[in-house]
Amino acid sequence: MAVAAGAFSLREVLAAFQTCVTEQREVLLGPYLRGWRGLIRFLHSLGAIFSFISKDAVAKVQIMENYCGGEQREKYVSLQSMVEFELASGLVDLQKRSGRPDSGCRTVLRLHRALRWLQLFLEGLRTGQEDSRTSVICTDSYNASLAAYHPWVIRKAATVAFCTLPSRNAFLEIMNVGTAEEAVAMLGEALPYICDVYGITQELFAQHKLLDLP
């Protein structure tokens, strides 16, 4: 199935997250950011509804791509090497934010939280019925993840915006992999990889007490 240039394709996201985790259970930042670029296209395909999330994700991915292509690029090959380097170099603001640029750890943490919401939302789409209300799926996913980190005014605006979401079948069509059944099948293939990346990141950040960075 041909996909227009710049359009979201679940297949591309699957390919990126499939290659994210090494045999040593390290998360490679190159494929991780490619996967995020794909997820951002998914958010963009839904219009302005998710702009409050997608704009922040674009900014965070750009910061990380700059680190991965910068003078210390060898320290940003994997999530694990980044955490080790930034902590050893005193680059992470653990208590309060300073005037220096955001660390890779803080930046990935924000992407990590948003990935949890997307993971829950896509899983809800996968397991839902044809007449399942996407607004309920999305709201439940948001409340179980990102909502805890947003001020009340954003939470309120988000839940109102979710009420305008298209049908489940329309979402599955946006996946650009064929029929609704084929999209559900590919979600079933992709989500375990996304879940694995999320789990490794969660464990790594918990181990180094990085889950509540300011």
Largest sheet: none
Please, how many helices? 9
Low-confidence stretches: none
Helical residue percent band: 55-70%
| Number of DSSP E strands | 0
For the record, give the distance between the C-alpha atoms at the N and C termini, rounded to a whole number.
44 Å
Task: Please tell me how large the radius of gyration is.
Answer: 17 Å
User: What structural class should be given to the helix and strand makeup?
Assistant: mainly alpha
Oligomer: single chain
The H-and-E topology, N to C, reads as: HHHHHHHHH
Average pLDDT confidence is 92
- Assign an overall shape: globular
| Beta-strand percentage range | under 5%
Question: How would you sum up this structure in a few lines?
Answer:
With 214 residues, this protein is mostly helical. Helix 1 runs parallel beside helix 9, helix 2 (29-45) packs antiparallel against helix 3 (51-68) and helix 5 (104-127) runs antiparallel to helix 9 (180-207).
What are the salient characteristics of this protein?
mainly alpha, 9 helices
Secondary-structure map with pairings?
Layout: H1 10-18, H2 29-45, H3 51-68, H4 79-88, H5 104-127, H6 134-143, H7 152-162, H8 168-174, H9 180-207
Characterization of this structure:
With 214 residues, the chain is mainly α. The chain is built from 9 helices and no strands. The chain is globular and about 50 Å long. The N and C termini lie far apart (44 Å). The relative contact order is 0.16.
